Amino acid sequence: MTSFRGINKVVKAQEFQMGNIRVKQALPGGGLNDIDPFLLLHHAGPFQIKPGSNHKKLGVGPHPHRGFEPVSFVFKGSLQHRDSVGNNDVLNDGDMQWMTSGKGIIHSERPPKKVTDYGGTQEFIQLWVNLPGKHKLTEPSYQNIRKMDFPLLKPDKGNGEIQLISGKLNRKSGPAKTFTPILALKAHFKKGAQSIIAIESSHNALVYVVNGTLKINGLTEVAKEHMVHFNNDGESIEIEAIEDAGFLVLSGEPIREPVSTYGPFVMNTNDEIMSAIRDYQQGKMGELVENFD
After folding, report:
1. 74: β partners
2. C-alpha closest to that of 191 among 155, 156, 242, 153
3. pLDDT tens for each residue of 38-97
4. Whole-model pTM?
């Protein structure tokens, strides 16, 4: 008989200003600093961009990262990524990027010119995934994965789809490459759809509800913009859509190392944080000059 993981906590995302946009932060939150290896979860949108908006004043301008992996999921609209190692790419509805900051990278994320010219709705999630100490100074890299490249799975019952981002589920594998074992699913269920998702016993796990309402394990209703953190006491979770719903399922092998953070840097010690700050100030993470022509 399948044993479901109990719910440790349900956290409502809190809204605040970040750069030129307002985001809803589910993690850290509710007394949880992280859910190892997941460090942060920001949900931006949905919001409207007016036609003829100033491209330079929207999104998040150039900023550095070291020691972890910023991951962006695009739910609506488009997002333009530029970085100091030469990547310049546009992600559209359903695409995602998995960036390894490693020893240091500078990047920006803004709506592309077609959106600022003609307007549109934007909605995306950024997730921070920690790197083990032995990989924190690896060479930076970038994975841009298109919607068409994700294996699609159907709910056990009802209508909807599950995009398999990384890890393995139902004998399929997601295309995103990770440094530690991670299952990442991006799903949309129609009302009444239901699935049982297997979770590795050693993994920490969470569900974030982007929109709609879910019922977890047949008992707990969870509304949009809430995150569910699970206990490590079962082999699966059951998800049912009470109404049409979009959501993420994330589970990962905990790294179990000290975490020291300062803004966009995530290392193991304070000394390593100070080194990251010095390297950034000395230009060792490269340079990003945005061209808006």
Report:
1. 124
2. 242
3. 999 999 999 999 999 887 788 889 999 999 999 999 999 999 999 999 999 999 999 999
4. 0.96
